Amino acid sequence: MTITLNRPEKLNAFVRDMHGLLREAMAQAEGDAAIRALLLTGAGRGFCAGQDLAERDMKDPNLDLGGGLDASYNPFIRRLRALPKPVVCAVNGIAAGAGANIALACDLVLAARSAAFIQAFSKIALVPDCGGTYWLPRLVGLQRAMGMALLAERVSAEDAERWGLIWKCVDDAKLMDEATSLARTLAAGPTHTYGMIKKALYASSGNSLDQQLDLERDFQREVGRHGDYREGVAAFLEKRKPAFTGR
Ligand code: T3D
What we know:
247 residues; alpha/beta; 5-stranded parallel β-sheet; 4-stranded mixed β-sheet; 9 strands; binds ligand T3D
């Protein structure tokens, strides 16, 4: 299933309606067992420029940006991370502010060579949100995370790949083919196991080695009882491609 952020004239900056549509799309991705991978991308020349800055009422003395995060962005980020299916992000152009951090919330991020990532927040005196302060230091180390957040400079897709911020930078013309092919490959994989791999990796930074070894034991016990494991081993021994069902 592909979700395309579609407000190209404003670089897909988020307005309220988009959150409603995203909620519906996520519910479909979560509920339909036939959907075994998700691809997120943007229409036009940008991926997403974050929150639409014209949408907030700057005269409102009770303006509560935290409330907005609680109501819309944060549930989306949580759902992306918790989705027990792989999420591929194809960053087709600029990813700024919340747009950058939504991309980084995805499991595998491909970016067009012309794309760039900007932690634009400090330019308007905000702190990075949508998980930025959580995964930036984990992905690129504290110094680069700090530079990105304080300076709000463009990080090119090539640097993003070199720094380990994203999986891969690809030529613009090849982005959608590569991302679609990656999502299709994942959709034919052992979906249940992929869900467990996500859970294990995302749990690891909060766990000690002992906790993580226990978690791996428990997860291996569970996936070892799944039909996809039997199919994987049978296919290996019979020298054929496995036909995983993911269920
Ligand atoms: O409010 C809350 O809920 C708090 C949460 C905040 C989360 C956030 O995301 S805060 C960060 C918000 N985003 C930004 O600050 C980025 C603002 N945009 C830019 O800095 C630049 O547009 C870019 C560097 C991303 C791209 O620059 P460029 O030169 O390629 O494009 P442009 O000409 O600036 O933008 C094209 C159009 O999109 C333009 O509209 P126009 O003049 O043609 O009618 C521009 O105003 C519009 N646009 C781009 N970003 C936003 C936006 N309009 C509203 N909000 C935006 N974020």
